[in-house]
Design a protein that fits this description.
Main location: secreted
Family: Belongs to the glycosyl hydrolase 28 family.
Largest sheet: 15 strands, parallel
Number of domains: 2
Strand content: over 45%
Mean pLDDT: 84
GO biological process, one term: carbohydrate metabolic process
CATH superfamily of the largest domain: Single-stranded right-handed beta-helix, Pectin lyase-like
Keywords: Cell wall, Cell wall biogenesis/degradation, Glycosidase, Hydrolase, Secreted, Signal
GO molecular function, one term: polygalacturonase activity
CATH topology of the largest domain: Pectate Lyase C-like
Number of helices: 2
CATH class of the largest domain: Mainly Beta
Low-confidence stretches: 3-32, 258-262
Shape: elongated
Length: 342
């Protein structure tokens, strides 16, 4: 009888251990199902073979997943070649999808190698999302140097967010886009932070971030070094907050390309802060000024303008050429040659 009791006790212990192990295995499988690694869907990551279809397969699986917070993973240590690709969030089961990009993504090396199924105007696009988190330590390189020799009107945008809301982008590096590196179009509640964007100073129309028909956009704590505007703001954009941006070379933060063909267009509630201007040269400028104050440098007391150089400048007031004047506040630099007004 004692032996029977011992055997029964051992069976009960084994049963408990088995149930516990099964539960642990089930939890592990659930965690695996939350992450959709492009390597597991056939991506090679050698920088030579096209991984676009494998990325699309991994994305479709993440989109169809019943997991509350699926993650699309591009792992580090590999370089993934992608043709133009658009990921659509319209029919995804989750409104809390994450893209973890830790590897290097590159575009084809020349325009003729781009393979678009339709007349695409961007390289990597995200459409119709409500809840998207894009983050990581990876690099997205558009290999745009061959594009820069063509008309900028024909060049493709690099990374586009369109018709979406509640989107975060954090930590990534963007390089050498054919045209604008990042574009926010017809979207709202966008937050971009800790980004690095860079292209050579001679690269045309390679804006760091372009905002068009979008509202409630926040861009902060980022370094943008391109050949055109660091941040450009187009028509129908409202409630834009830009802070703590290191900008240059390039054209700074710009609002422009409005009113083409006589259209009336609006940009409202744009706020910039913690912007430092330095190493700017104004040279060989001759002309007339509509206002008496022909030169005006008005900089922040806490973050003054530095290393401003004026050389060979002659500006006259169109009404009274001898009354042209200048105004400088918290601007430091040098004057070379003739500078009028001084």
């Amino acid at each position: 009888m004692a032996t029977s009791k011992i055997l029964l006790l051992l069976l009960l212990i084994q049963c408990v251990v088995f149930i516990g192990s099964s539960r642990q295995l089930k939890n592990t499988n659930t965690n695996i199902d939350n992450t959709f690694n492009v390597i597991n869907f056939g991506a090679i990551g050698d920088g030579q073979k096209d991984d676009s279809k494998m990325f699309k397969h991994a994305w479709d699986a993440a989109c169809d997943s019943s997991a509350p917070s699926p993650t699309f993973l591009v792992p580090r240590g590999k370089t993934y070649l992608l043709q133009p690709l658009t990921l659509n969030g319209k029919h995804c089961n989750s409104n809390n999808i994450s893209l973890q990009i830790d590897g290097r993504i590159i575009a084809p090396t020349k325009p003729s190698a781009w393979d678009c199924e339709t007349n695409c105007n961007h390289w990597i696009g995200f459409e119709n999302f409500d809840g998207l988190h894009i983050q990581g330590s990876g690099t997205i390189n558009g290999q745009g140097d061959k594009w820069w020799k063509l008309s900028c009107k024909d060049n493709e945008k690099g990374f586009m967010i369109g018709h979406s809301k509640n989107v975060d982008i954090k930590g990534l590096t963007f390089e050498d886009s054919p045209q604008m590196h990042i574009a926010f179009e017809s979207s709202t509640l966008i937050h971009a932070t800790e980004l690095t964007i860079r292209a050579p100073g001679h690269s045309p129309n390679t804006d760091g971030i372009h905002i068009q028909r979008s509202t409630n956009v926040s861009i902060e704590n980022s370094t943008i070094q391109t050949g055109d505007d660091c941040i450009s703001i187009g028509n129908e954009s409202k409630y834009i907050n830009i802070s703590n941006i290191e900008c240059g070379p390039g054209h700074g933060i710009s609002i422009g390309s409005l009113g083409i063909m006589g259209k009336t267009e609006e940009v409202e509630f744009v706020h910039t802060s913690a912007v430092e201007i330095s190493n700017i040269a104004y040279e060989n400028i001759n002309g007339t000024s509509h206002k008496e104050i022909a030169v005006q440098l008005s900089c922040s007391e806490s973050v003054p303008c530095k290393n401003i150089t004026m050389k060979n400048i002659n500006l006259i007031y169109e009404k009274h050429k001898d009354k042209t004047s200048s105004y400088c506040l918290n601007a430091r630099g040098l004057r070379n040659g003739r500078v009028h007004p001084s």
